[in-house]
Amino acid sequence: MRLANRTREVDFFKKMLRGEISQRILLIQAASGMGKTSLLAEFASLCPVHAEAAILVKINLKSAQTGIAYIFSKLQSRLGEDSFTKFNEALSKFLSAGVEVADNQIEGTENQIQVVLNAESEDIRNFRLSQLQRAFFQDLQAVKKQILMILDTFNEAPINLADWIGGGFLAEVAESNNIRVVIAGQSVPKPTIEWEDLADTHCLDRIDDIEAWHLFVQARGLPFEREAVKAFVRVLNGNPDAIMKVFESQAGGWKHE
Ligand SMILES: Nc1ncnc2c1ncn2[C@@H]1O[C@H](COP(=O)(O)OP(=O)(O)OP(=O)(O)O)[C@@H](O)[C@H]1O
Ligand SMILES: [Mg+2]
């Protein structure tokens, strides 16, 4: 057992994955230490069980310091260059049109995308981005499998990446029936008219359900009686991070997964 409680979120995710509900965008918002990253790890482990053929792509937005280009290139390397005919065509078109490239032998797709998106005028940049993103999502829609994207730490994404995820990216996801997205963060994108009907936001709160913690402790083989669990949970206000730290330190040499 990886988690205490969080059954509501896990149930929702399973239904979303199996296509039993219309929502395809799940937003998980909570303060630090409430268990967003832990919950995403649980979601990822459920993916092969509930959607065997799905392609899972996990991205920590904290690492996306090159911005939008990072997302394109991460998905490309996960799905394979061959799946991106339209996108690569659009990219080459911009590159061969001279896109202010002094040295047109730019190495690596991520760099190429960055160069194309690095236009000096906002209008040109937006035009290029809309062309690239359209081609990219057409390629993704043509993939004959479900694609599940799990994006963590939205609050640490660079500003223009965060704006794009909440704007063009999720608007394209809304048009792509084979794509499901989970986004977690201390903040999450603000719903827009283009995708709000397909999204559900879950706020993770403290876990003060003693029974849930007691079951968790038993499943993990931790040496605590129900009364001790109750005392920890009360004193630590149901904060999962603090509770786990105490369990760990009190249980001596015990290490969690
Ligand atoms: N439901 C849970 N059951 C058991 N332990 C949990 C649970 N949620 C969180 N924890 C514990 O709390 C720790 C911190 O959780 P986590 O890293 O998932 O928080 P977070 O919400 O992602 O925080 P941040 O916003 O700082 O990234 C985990 O390492 C885990 O030990
Ligand atoms: Mg986290």
Describe this entry's structure for a reader.
Strands 2-3-4-1-5 form a five-stranded parallel β-sheet, sandwiched between helices. α1 packs parallel to α2 (36-50) and α3 (68-79) runs antiparallel to α5 (109-117). α7 (159-174) links the parallel β3 and β4. It contains ten helices and five strands. The mean pLDDT is 92. It is 49% helix and 11% strand. The structure holds adenosine-5'-triphosphate (ATP) and magnesium ion. Magnesium ion is lined by residues 36-37, 152-153.
What is the CATH architecture assignment of the largest domain? 3-Layer(aba) Sandwich
Q: Bin the strand percentage.
A: 5-15%
Mean pLDDT: 92
The helix content, as a percent range, equals 40-55%
Largest sheet strand order: 2-3-4-1-5
Please report the number of helical segments: 10
Instruction: Name the helix and strand elements from N-terminus to C-terminus, one letter apiece.
Output: HEHEHHHHEHEEHHH
User: What kind of oligomer do you see?
Assistant: single chain
User: Residue ranges: pLDDT <50 for 5 or more in a row?
Assistant: none
What is the C-alpha radius of gyration, as a whole number of Å?
21 Å
Bound molecules: adenosine-5'-triphosphate, magnesium ion
Number of domains: 2
Tell me the major beta sheet: 5 strands, parallel
Please write the CATH class name of the largest domain: Alpha Beta
